[in-house]
Amino acid sequence: MSPRAYSRLGRNADASAELFKYGVVDIEYRRVPCSYTGYNVVFKVHEHSRNPDYFAVVVLYVDGTYDVTAVELFQQDCQEWKPMRRAFGAMFDYSNPPNGEIYLRFQVSGSAGLYWVQSKNAISGDWKAGATYDTNVQLN
Questions:
Q1: 3 state SS of 59
Q2: For strand 54-60 and strand 67-75, is the pairing parallel, antiparallel, or unpaired?
Q3: What domains can you pick out in the chain, each with its CATH number?
C-alpha cells in the first residue's frame, strides 16, 4: 500500500507512521448488508454495448448479503439458457446476443445457498446502451 493509504488507516499521524513500519498489515473487515428498500434488482445495459453485436449488463440494487455469481440469457431458437461471461464485478457480457426480447436469469449466493432467480420482465429487442430494465424481483 502507498504511504497515503497507511496515513488513512491510522487514528493519528503517529499511529499511521507505526503502521507504515510494519510494511504488511492484516486488515479485518466485516461485511455489511446492502439496503435498497423499495428497489427491485435492475439490469443496466452497459455503455459499451452495441446492438446487435455485443450485449453487456450490470446487475444493480442487490439487497442484503447476496452475491450475483452468474447470469444466463435464454436462447429462443434452441430453447436453452446460455451463460454470459463475467467481465468484472457485477458486469456480465455476451457476444452476438439473440434478436428480439432477451430473457435473463441470475444466480445468487447467500445464507440460503446458491439458487437461480429469473427476471419477471424481458429486456426489449431494441435495447440501448445505458438503459435500465427492472426485473420486478427483490432480494431480502
A1: strand
A2: unpaired
A3: 1-30 (no CATH), 42-134 (2.60.40.760)
